[in-house]
Amino acid sequence: VKDRIVLEIGGMTCAACSQNVEKVLKRLKGVSSASVNITTGRAHVEYNSSLVSIDEIRKAVDGIGYSASLPA
Ligand code: 9UX
């Protein structure tokens, strides 16, 4: 089953930041695609919820110095 989530990423100040976030997301087991838009500050993630949780996804982003939260 493929799930999708949109996360609001905090702390991105340059275009390379979005690449950093994308990379760490794609490295997660269970994440099949990740795309981060520096302009909107949002990440679109496709993942398998039986392999990885939203919390794990958020923690991975947190772990490289950015924040990830559910859009208000
Ligand atoms: Mo965007 Mo950079 O961080 O060291 S300001 S990649």
UniProtKB/TrEMBL annotation:
Residue ranges annotated for the HMA domain, each copy included: 3-69
Superkingdom of origin organism: Archaea
Subcellular location: Cell membrane
Family statement drawn from the similarity comment of this UniProt entry: Belongs to the cation transport ATPase (P-type) (TC 3.A.3) family. Type IB subfamily.
Protein name in the entry: P-type Cu(+) transporter
Taxonomic path: Archaea, Methanobacteriati, Methanobacteriota, Stenosarchaea group, Methanomicrobia
